[in-house]
């Protein structure tokens, strides 16, 4: 198959062996795959993640000296079945799934495993038991946003918000916007959002934020009318942001950390002690979050359409991935391997 893959620190494009579906797996031809900031983080800082995973039997079974086909926000078409499959979903059906595949040696993350190539290639193998059929009237690229929106729903569920809580979303990239949409869907109001980028602030307001703040002009951590944010979602994922939140947030606040930071970070823990802060790292969303995200996109209660920008083929992956961190870039550039 043709694929764009990470090898020796660079994105390359070429032919790789077709993946073969094992027991309980299906072969899927990629139609659409969102380009995520975590793909860029892995390219730039993946060694630290892999070193930790290898030392602690973590889920990131990656060998960077072998081709790694990234891409974990995908929609594809069923083209074949492995052994011991029920074959309930007919060939030609558009499907998506949470990016996890059970294997005899443990679960593998699609797009974060050499043996489970992601959507930056023509073909993927997915678990039959985890397939979600795409409704006929749902646009493919929108359906591919189920994974990041499921992340938002998972973190908001884990936050266990009450009517007395006031949420603040720091950083309005894809995960921050997913938090805002999830907060709106669960009727957690008012929703406060903060980002230095005017374009991202506009997207936050369109996603459902009630109060949108430019932190260059005013602190988002202080009173906003009658409410002071006390549940803060750190959705930036770069060193220093968590420490800034700890120093500036209200006493007794809960800090939820969806942002992936693969670089070493530090924080003034005595400040967190003194304020009695609670820091929560959420882990992976559950399949129920993914399914709810897909249903919500399908029925229109969540619409990620404003995220979607260019559609590109495999030959453009290296160039486009380098732009992911630019706030003027679309929230999601979508890769379609069939375009090359």
Q: What is the tally of beta strands?
A: 17
Provide mean pLDDT, rounded. Answer: 94
Structural class: alpha/beta
Sketch the topology as an H/E string, one letter per element: EEEHEEEEEEHHEHEHEEHEHEHEHE
Report the CATH superfamily of the largest domain.
Answer: Medium-chain alcohol dehydrogenases, catalytic domain
Regions with little confidence, pLDDT below 50 for 5+ residues: none
Helix tally equals 9
Shape: globular
Instruction: State the end-to-end CA separation.
Output: 12 Å
* Assembly classification: single chain
Query: What share of residues is helical?
Result: 25-40%
Largest sheet: 7 strands, mixed
Give an overview of the whole structure.
By secondary structure, the chain is an alpha/beta fold. Helix 3 packs across helix 8 (287-299). The strands form four sheets. Strands 3, 4, 5, 8, 9, 16 and 17 form a seven-stranded mixed sheet that branches. The protein has a six-stranded parallel sheet with strand order 12-11-10-13-14-15, with helices on both faces. The protein is 27% helix and 21% strand. The mean pLDDT is 94. The longest helix has 19 residues, at 37-55.
């Amino acid at each position: 198959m043709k694929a764009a893959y990470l090898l020796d620190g660079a994105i390359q494009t070429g032919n790789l062996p077709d993946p073969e579906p094992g027991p309980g797996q299906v072969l899927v031809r990629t139609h659409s795959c969102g380009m995520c900031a975590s793909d860029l983080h892995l390219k730039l800082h993946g060694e630290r993640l892999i070193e930790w995973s290898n030392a602690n039997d973590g889920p990131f079974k990656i060998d960077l000296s072998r081709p790694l086909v990234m891409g974990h926000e995908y929609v594809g078409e069923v083209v074949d079945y492995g052994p011991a499959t029920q074959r309930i979903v007919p060939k030609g059906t558009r499907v998506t799934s949470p990016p996890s595949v059970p294997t005899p040696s443990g679960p593998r993350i699609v797009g974060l495993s050499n043996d489970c190539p992601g959507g930056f290639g023509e073909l993927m193998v997915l678990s039959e038991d985890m397939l979600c059929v795409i409704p006929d009237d749902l646009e493919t690229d929108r359906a591919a946003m189920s994974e990041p929106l499921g992340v938002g729903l998972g973190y908001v569920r884990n936050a266990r918000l009450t009517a007395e809580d006031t949420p603040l979303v720091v950083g309005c990239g894809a995960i921050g916007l997913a938090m805002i949409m999830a907060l709106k869907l669960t009727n957690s109001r008012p929703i406060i959002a903060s980002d230095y980028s005017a374009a991202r602030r506009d997207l936050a307001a369109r996603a459902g934020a009630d109060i949108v703040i430019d932190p260059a002009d005013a602190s988002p951590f202080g009173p906003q009318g009658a409410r002071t944010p006390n549940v803060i979602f750190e959705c930036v994922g770069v060193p220093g942001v968590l420490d800034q939140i700890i120093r500036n947030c209200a006493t007794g606040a809960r800090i939820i950390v969806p942002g992936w930071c693969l670089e070493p970070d530090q924080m003034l823990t005595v400040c967190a002690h003194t304020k009695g802060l609670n820091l929560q790292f959420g882990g992976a969303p559950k399949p129920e979050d993914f399914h709810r995200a897909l249903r919500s996109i399908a029925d229109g209660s969540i619409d990620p359409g404003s995220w979607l920008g260019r559609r590109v083929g495999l030959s453009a992956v290296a160039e486009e991935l380098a732009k992911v961190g630019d706030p003027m870039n679309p929230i999601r550039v979508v890769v379609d391997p069939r375009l090359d």
